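Input C-alpha cells:
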C-alpha cells in the first residue's frame, strides 16, 4: 500500500473513532507503534483534529468538529452538490451552523479549470428559488437533536391567540416555501401538532424522553388537518395560473373558460385555523376566483371587500 493511500485510509479510520491508541492503529494497518505515532502526527499537520491524552488510559482522541476525509467527485456529482448548496442560500436560518458560502467556495476552488466557467454560466440560468424570509429560526439545531433523541422540549410558542408554554417531542423539521416547520407530539394532549419554528420564542430541552411512534417522512406522507373544512373554489384561466404556484390549492382544469364557465376548480380540505389566511389569499385574486364554500371564507372576503370600499370611498 502506498503511503498516500495509507494516510487517506488513516484519516477515514480516525474519523470513525472517538478514542484509540497508537497500538490500535499499528494493529489496523500492520505497522510498528513508532510508525503509527509518526503517521498520526502527519495527518494532524494536514488539519485532522487529533490530540493526545496522557495517563494510564491515554491515547488519541478526535474532536467532535472533525474534518471529513478527501472525497472525489466526477463533474456531474460536483455540479449537483454545488447547486444543492446554492439552493440553501435563500434560508437565513440553517441547522448545524452551516456556512453555505464557505462550502461553495471550497468546492468551486477544487473544480477543474474548464468546469468553473460552466458553473458561472449556470448560476445565471439555474436557481432553486425560495422566497427570502426575514424571520429567524434560531433553534433548528437543538430541535433536530431533540427529535433524534426523542427528548421532551419546553417551549414558549407564539400563535394567534398569544404566547403560551408547550411541552412537546419534535418528530423532525422540514423547510417549505422559505420557512421551517416542526411536527411535534404535544405531551399534554397526546396528539401531533404542526409548529412554525420561527414562532418559538424560547426553548429548553429536558433529559426526559418520550417515544413517538412515527417518523418525519411517515408523518409528511400521511399528514391530515386536525380540524378539516371543505374548500370549493371556481377559477378563471388567470386564477388557475396563479393558484398553480401554490401546491395546497391543487387546482383541477375543467377546460377553457367560456363566458361565465369556470376554467378550473379547487375542491380540497383546509384546516379551520387557516380560514383567515385562505380568505385573504382568494380576496387577493379578486375576480379570478369565486369561493363557493365554506361560508366562513365567503363572509370574510365580503367583509374585506366592504372595508376596502369604505376606506377608498373616503378618498
Amino acid at each position: 500500500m502506498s503511503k498516500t493511500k495509507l494516510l487517506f485510509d488513516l484519516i477515514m479510520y480516525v474519523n470513525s473513532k472517538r478514542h484509540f491508541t497508537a497500538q490500535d492503529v499499528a494493529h489496523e494497518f500492520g505497522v510498528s507503534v513508532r510508525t503509527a505515532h509518526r503517521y498520526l502526527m502527519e495527518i494532524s499537520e494536514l488539519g485532522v483534529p487529533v490530540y493526545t491524552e496522557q495517563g494510564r488510559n491515554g491515547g488519541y482522541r478526535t474532536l467532535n468538529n472533525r474534518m471529513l476525509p478527501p472525497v472525489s467527485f466526477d463533474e456531474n456529482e460536483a455540479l449537483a452538490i454545488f447547486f444543492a448548496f446554492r439552493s440553501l442560500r435563500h434560508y437565513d436560518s440553517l441547522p448545524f451552523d452551516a456556512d453555505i458560502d464557505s462550502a461553495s467556495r471550497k468546492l468551486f476552488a477544487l473544480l477543474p479549470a474548464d468546469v468553473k466557467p460552466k458553473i458561472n454560466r449556470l448560476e445565471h440560468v439555474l436557481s432553486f428559488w425560495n422566497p427570502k424570509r426575514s424571520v429567524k429560526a434560531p433553534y433548528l439545531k437543538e430541535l433536530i437533536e431533540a427529535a433524534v433523541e426523542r427528548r421532551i422540549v419546553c417551549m414558549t410558542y407564539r400563535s394567534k391567540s398569544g404566547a403560551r408554554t408547550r411541552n412537546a417531542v419534535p418528530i423532525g423539521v422540514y423547510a417549505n416555501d422559505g420557512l421551517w416547520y416542526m411536527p411535534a407530539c404535544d405531551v399534554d394532549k397526546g396528539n401531533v401538532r404542526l409548529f412554525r419554528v420561527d414562532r418559538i420564542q424560547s426553548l429548553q430541552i429536558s433529559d426526559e424522553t418520550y417515544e413517538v411512534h412515527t417518523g418525519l417522512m411517515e408523518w409528511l406522507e400521511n399528514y391530515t388537518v386536525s380540524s378539516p373544512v371543505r374548500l370549493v373554489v371556481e377559477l378563471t384561466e388567470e386564477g388557475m395560473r396563479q393558484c398553480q404556484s401554490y401546491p395546497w390549492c391543487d387546482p383541477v382544469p375543467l377546460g377553457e373558460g367560456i363566458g361565465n364557465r369556470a376554467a378550473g376548480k379547487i375542491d380540497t380540505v383546509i384546516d379551520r385555523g387557516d380560514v383567515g389566511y385562505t380568505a385573504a389569499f382568494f380576496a387577493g385574486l379578486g375576480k379570478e376566483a369565486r369561493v363557493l364554500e365554506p361560508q366562513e371564507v365567503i363572509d370574510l372576503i365580503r367583509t374585506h371587500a366592504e372595508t376596502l370600499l369604505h376606506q377608498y370611498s373616503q378618498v
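The mean pLDDT is 82. The two ends are 85 Å apart (CA to CA).
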